Request: fold
Amino acid sequence: MRINVYSQELILDESPELVTQESNTGITYSAIRIFLHSSEKLHHPPQDDDRSAITFWLPKSDSNREKLIDILGEMIEGIRQAPSGTGLD
Reply:
């Protein structure tokens, strides 16, 4: 599976959201979420935020979280190394 998110879809002036959710099994999951521009037809009341977003559900173990941090760091370096002036805003 490949997921493409275009730069025009990113909301770059809103901080990521830390999400925690307890499942019906009693396990609590954590995630980090960044929001995307959504259709004006969608509404987002506080009790049911249905805006488009990318949610990264986090691994439980510290070692796997560190691996994810490393991957995200590599993504940051890739962004810094990409030729400027490419893409769309």
